[in-house]
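Now for our target.
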Amino acid sequence: MYPLIKQCHRVSRSSLSYYSFLIDHCFSLKSLSFARIAHAQLIKVGLNRHTFLGNRCLDLYSQLGNVNDVLKVFDDISRKNIVSWNICLKGLLRFDNLSLARSVFDDMPERDVVSWNSMISGFASRGYFNCALETFWEMQKLGVRPSEFTLSILMSMVFGVRQGKEIHASVVRSGLGALNVVLGNSLIDMYGKFSSLDYALRVFLTMEELDVISWNSLISACCKSGYPELALDKFCIMRSLGYSPDEFSVSAVITSCLNLRNLEKGKQIFALCVKVGFLYNTIISSATIDLFSKCNRLEDSVRLFDEQDQWDSAVCNSMISSYAWCGFGEDGLRLFVLTLKKDIRPTEFTLSSVLHSTSILKLEQGTQFHSLAVKSGLELDAIVSSSLVEMYSKFGFIDCSMRIFNNMIVRDLIAWNTMIMGLTHNGRVIEALQTFKELLGRGLPPDRITLAGVLLACSFGGFISEGMTIFLSMEESYGVKPSNEHYACFVDLLCQAGRLDEALFVAESMPYEPTYKLSERIAERLMELEPQSSLPYLVLTRLFEIRGQWEGVVRVKKAMKRGRVEKVIGCSWIGVKNQVYTFKADQLQHHRGKEIYLVLRLLNWEMEAKGYLQ
């Protein structure tokens, strides 16, 4: 290294090409110490003030140095050009100094599309999406023509279809639309993310040039939009037209088989993977492990996992998730411990999969995983934070959930939904509705899960008029078609308002068959509000008949034949050490019922003594 420096003394000091070569050598070595030696040589010969060499040195420190290095070199350049300003701006953003970068951007004597792209990308990558969009609209007003990169950044951060269509319009106005395969693929991917398959198909059909990524984006859009069979059809067309599928194509198709719960078709796709040499590709293996477990073939998931040549985080995450899905959360936790022993660094998906196993976790274990997230630098990741919010809310520590949610840098819709649901299930319904209003204020469009949580909050809190207003405006205001979960809350609101006839009418006029659970909820609600009415008993009788639960039919009819109509008695069964205990709302049917009641009475006294019962 040092002989090269000594050789510089023998070269003419006016030789710009040689000093440029010296800086190139610094880039290849990626050594900060060598970069400082080279910079010292430039200062010694007085070429640090030269625009070209100064820019090269500025770029070098932007990648290897720190903020002070960048500012020092930038100040030394006597005649700064647009390249000098752009490199300085990129360097500050790379070092995460957004406020100083904004100041430099505002002070620039002129800005080109690179300057605007840097600022838009800087805002977007740090979660300031509104600032990124405002910067883009400002760029448009000043007549700066966006590049492919500009539009790609914007399409990656849109929150709704309407916003996406505005960006699409900018693509068309820029003249880059059908001629650019990269932008076309980004548009298909963006529309697929919002389940707007019709728009994704239109973009695909207008593209003059297609590649494998175009087909992958379309297949993925079909899958995300709820058309897995169409995704399989497009995959077949893709192959018939001579396009060779890659691991992403096959992964999307396996996911479609998963959504269809079509194990046989999934096995065919997996056989294709073996044929084309994708067997040990981690993307394919992960998707196939998910497919087998979701189709209740956990043993096949385990077999495929065991056949892997080496473990990586993606395959381990899928296996941990599969264990949790099939009710073997403890095995998932054991595998997680093994991954740590094998020095496989947990990712955000690993921690999320483990935290979703809260049914077998204790609070102490949950807090340990929280600590691990902090140590791994993943606490502020949107996926991990949402999982932590969900975990603490399930344990009833909703204030901890709120604290994590408020500290999140970027809140996606999943985070908002998790917080709204957590508040609702913990009885903080007013705060749940306030969170929903804040979500709307941020410009994020709610989805079916958001609205289900809000309607549930209205139902729990007795906010009848608010809940009815939201339900009746769901499709028009938010573009969400009501499903069973929304109808269940709406029917409950109607029952609370005493509008029983309307509740039954809504249940009967639903666009699809109401679920057993929804119909049962209507009947139970009617029992509470009109205990003397025979209508809910007739509803339950019909439900039991449909499901073949004849003992339920007998119980309901016996209740109706009594002198006065009584509510059907609830019943639970608990198995303890091969012995089944049957509990009813008004009695305990078991020969050791006396002993059990004595234990319950003792527990009651202990709770009263400790002040748990008032």
In short: Residues 24 and 56 are 9 Å apart (CA to CA). The longest helix spans residues 593-609. DSSP finds 36 helices and three strands in the chain.
